[in-house]
Amino acid sequence: MKITVMTADEQFITLDVDPDESVENVKALLEVETSVSLQQQQLLFNGKEIRNAERLRSVGVGDGDLVMMMRVSQSQPPRCDCESTGTILRSLKFEKERVHGDIIATVIASATTNDLNFNPDGSAINPGAFQEHFKRSTDLMAQLLQNDPQLAQAILGNDLDRMQNLLRERHQQRLELRRQQEEELALMYADPFDVESQRKIEAAIRQKGIDENWAAALEHNPEAFARVVMLYVDMEVNGVPLKAFVDSGAQSTIISKSCAERCGLLRLLDRRFKGIAHGVGQSEILGRIHVAPIKIGNIFYPCSFMVLDAPNMEFLFGLDMLRKHQCIIDLKENVLRVGGGEVSVPFLQEKDIPSHFLDEERYSKQASQGLGSAPESSGATVKNENLPSGSLVSGTTHNSNTQGADFESKIAKLVELGFDRGAAIQALNLFNGNEEQAAGYLFGG
């Protein structure tokens, strides 16, 4: 409802308040409008003073009534000696009220003047009459559509259950806002030497900074609140079309057992590389497929895979193959460039990605992190059951007897032959540091 306040200097101020608002909160609003402190205000209605603890409805103040504000000389109670703290708390209070209070006050005030009441939980007693009242009022619907389109759509769409739920939510927001207002008002006049009060003031100031940062993000970076769709491209593995999850944070390219079987590759599974991938959770490594053709665009490329017993993940194109085939993730053009740019394939839009893939991204990430993804690579280890003790398929820890300048030089020679470092380390560990056998193994694979 709207009330008019006349000050001692004959200034008229219109306030939009709730009928059940406390007089103290009305004075707080007037403090912002007139710069007259709450303690120096005396409010009169029909010639009688109304007290801080009283509610407007209980003293008979209704929509359109006139209230007098007198200024009295009175010493203020102890306040925090930091004026900026009070300003911050007041601005926080009224900023929240603008966000949540205006539309709720409009609803309640309108309902009250039309003999429509609410249940204790905030829902309308007669939802049909409440809905019809708003539908008949063009001005109210325009205000609702601007300030609370969710509630407006529920009313216009004849969804009474949704409307009631939204009214309950708004009621809870209002109760929470009122509780916060009371706490903030108490802090404004708290003992500046009280440790607990200072702690609460500090928390309120910190929260205001967070709220301002959130508001700035909504204005300048709204896409940060939207869902980010992961990168998928169309590929063919051994002639079978797949939608590949491109993940530069995964150290190895991985394929599920079911997908490998569907692509006709399970017969090539080398179980000597069986093990357990430890990272975020763990997955069983069934083995490795050393080479198979993948088609990206119109060109075929050789690719090797780790085969995981991961039913929630199909195919993940990892950093090993991204490096090997000189891939470029071009987010400006939204394409994956392969072979230094000889082939470009577009990343799939969300509508082109099967819905169950979007739900499985979490599982794919867990599987890839078990194979040494960026967040867990320093601690992820994949132990191979059939390799010499201390050797690893993936990770950062190697048997101490294979480390040293001699071992590094052997790795360097294999890298010069065109193999990636991880594969060279695997081969050398497999053949106990024998460089020739390792090279023959890599060329044969």
From TrEMBL:
GO biological process terms on file: protein transport; proteolysis
Annotated region (Disordered), positions in chain: 368-402
Domain of life: Eukaryota
Gene Ontology molecular function: aspartic-type endopeptidase activity; polyubiquitin modification-dependent protein binding
Sequence ranges assigned to domain UBA in this UniProt record: 406-445
PROSITE patterns hit by this protein: UBA, UBIQUITIN_2
Residues annotated as domain Ubiquitin-like: 1-70
Pfam families linked to this entry: Asp_protease, Ddi2_HDD, UBA, ubiquitin
Entry GO terms, CC: cytoplasm
Listed CDD domains: RP_DDI (cd05479), UBA_scDdi1_like (cd14309), Ubl_Ddi1_like (cd01796)
Key words of the record: Aspartyl protease, Cytoplasm, Hydrolase, Protease, Protein transport, Transport
Protein known as: DNA damage-inducible protein 1
Organism: Cinnamomum micranthum f. kanehirae
